[in-house]
């Protein structure tokens, strides 16, 4: 339970976690050194100096006890113990503090009080609040006495210097470590940016740098990116070549059918048109996401263009009012997004009577939704539906149109992934058919 609670407050980024790994040992080490110094060195020195003052106080008390009257105490101190530089003055009981006085941070003062209580039987109170002076109140045969001497005689001078040096050098070394850590993490962040850009269909120049392990990971990423790009290029060339080669015999067949009787040629001409549609779908799939570079586009204006094109083609589709509180532009491939939305609209009106398109734009996300009133796709078949050349005839209404070649949703999925997003299928709440969402991070 504790670790689950602690995990919520841990840094999310690699820079924050590396900084925590760096700072935590330094802080713990400084705290341990401070405690050890305070308990062993600082406390030991204070005890030694206090013992020296206690021996001097014992001499003072001997002189006081030997004086005939309280008025002769000062004279006796001046004659016998002037070298100790201590002043002794009688005080009344009302002038004695009710408790030992010291600053809240005066660690050596607490050590002194404990030492005086154990070693000086006549000890009453200790006042350490006066600047540079100590007032020691004791009992004598003449009543309470105030023995005054300098604070530097009972505690080390400038005891804070070690702490200042420790934390100053610790802070300096931490800054140096941060600079070095930043230089070490910069190649990792560059690799992450290059990988994120490639996932969104953008090619960012990247050269492996940094430590050996980071260079190895960067080189593996570059090789992987090159292989993926070669595979995409080979797929495009293969499908484009096959589709192009098949156009020539189809054209000859169309010309041949145009010369025979119209009634006899109509079924064959329909087959040729279907084959032409299949080839067009193959070409669309081959083009994939290679249509231009990403640019900053207004998604609302882009969808307005897509709906107008679909309506001119005779499709029953409506653009709903904008949703969300986001504004501005999103980096998109214009032709690729238009192709993906056109495929979704074509599927919607093929298997349903009408379709609706909506755009949700927030500060972090763009969502383009296409809904229809058709039969939809069962949940257990939605993963299969987005695969290339997959046709789910039992799940869709074949009587509403031609079955196609099963590339519409696959093309939309590829385009969404190329923008760093995804295509999600669900059930439409408003129309009751299929709901297809293209979701892209801004």
UniProtKB/TrEMBL annotation:
Pfam family, one: HisKA
Name by which UniProt lists this protein: histidine kinase
Catalytic activity: ATP + protein L-histidine = ADP + protein N-phospho-L-histidine
Phosphoprotein as UniProt keyword: yes
UniProt xrefs under SUPFAM superfamilies: ATPase domain of HSP90 chaperone/DNA topoisomerase II/histidine kinase, Homodimeric domain of signal transducing histidine kinase
The enzyme's E.C. designation: 2.7.13.3
Principal location listed in the UniProt entry: membrane
Keywords: ATP-binding, Cell inner membrane, Cell membrane, Kinase, Membrane, Nucleotide-binding, Phosphoprotein, Transferase, Transmembrane, Transmembrane helix, Two-component regulatory system
Phylogenetic placement of the source organism: Bacteria, Pseudomonadati, Pseudomonadota, Alphaproteobacteria, Rhodobacterales
GO molecular function: kinase activity
Membrane topology summary: Multi-pass membrane protein
Compartments, record wording: Cell inner membrane
Gene3D superfamilies for the chain: 1.10.287.130, Histidine kinase-like ATPase, C-terminal domain (3.30.565.10)
Domain HAMP: 182-233
Transmembrane segments: 162-181
Species of the source: Sulfitobacter litoralis
Domain Histidine kinase: 241-442
């Amino acid at each position: 339970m504790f670790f689950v609670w602690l995990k919520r407050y841990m840094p999310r980024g690699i820079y924050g976690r590396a900084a925590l790994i760096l700072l935590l040992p330094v802080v713990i080490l400084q705290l341990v050194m401070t405690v050890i110094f305070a308990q062993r060195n600082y406390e030991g020195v204070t005890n030694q100096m206090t013992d020296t003052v206690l021996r001097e106080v014992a001499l003072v008390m001997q002189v006081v006890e030997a004086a005939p009257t309280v008025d002769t105490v000062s004279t006796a101190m001046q004659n016998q113990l002037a070298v100790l530089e201590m002043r002794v003055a009688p005080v009344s009981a009302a002038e004695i503090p009710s408790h030992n006085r010291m600053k809240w941070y005066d660690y050596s003062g607490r050590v002194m009080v404990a030492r005086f209580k154990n070693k000086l039987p006549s000890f009453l109170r200790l006042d350490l609040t006066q600047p540079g002076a100590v007032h020691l109140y004791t009992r004598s045969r003449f009543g309470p006495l105030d023995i005054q001497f300098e604070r530097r005689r009972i505690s080390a001078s400038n005891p804070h210097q070690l702490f200042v040096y420790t934390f100053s050098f610790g802070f300096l070394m931490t800054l140096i470590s941060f600079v070095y850590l930043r230089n070490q993490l910069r190649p990792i962040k560059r690799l992450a940016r290059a990988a994120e850009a490639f996932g969104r269909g953008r090619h960012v120049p990247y050269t492996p740098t940094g430590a050996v392990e980071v260079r190895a990971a960067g080189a593996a990423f570059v090789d992987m990116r090159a292989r993926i790009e070669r595979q995409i290029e080979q797929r495009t060339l293969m499908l484009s070549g096959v589709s192009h080669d098949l156009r020539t015999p189809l054209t000859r067949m169309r010309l041949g059918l145009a010369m025979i009787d119209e009634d006899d040629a109509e079924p064959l001409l329909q087959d040729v048109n279907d084959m032409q549609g299949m080839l067009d779908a193959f070409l669309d799939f081959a083009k994939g996401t290679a249509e231009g570079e990403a640019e900053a586009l207004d998604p609302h204006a882009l969808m307005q263009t897509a709906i107008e094109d679909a309506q001119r083609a005779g499709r029953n589709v409506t653009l709903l009012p904008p949703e969300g509180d986001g504004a501005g532009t999103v980096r998109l491939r214009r032709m690729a997004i238009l192709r993906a939305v056109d495929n979704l609209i074509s599927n919607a009106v093929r298997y349903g009577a009408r379709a609706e398109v909506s755009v949700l734009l927030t500060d972090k996300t763009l969502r383009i939704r296409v809904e229809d009133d058709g039969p939809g796709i069962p949940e257990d078949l939605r993963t299969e539906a987005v695969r290339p050349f997959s046709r789910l005839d039992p799940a869709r209404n074949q009587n509403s149109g031609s079955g196609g070649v099963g590339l519409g949703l696959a093309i939309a999925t590829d385009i969404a992934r190329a923008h760093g997003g995804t295509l999600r299928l669900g059930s439409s709440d408003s129309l009751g058919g299929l709901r297809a969402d293209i979701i892209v991070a801004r």
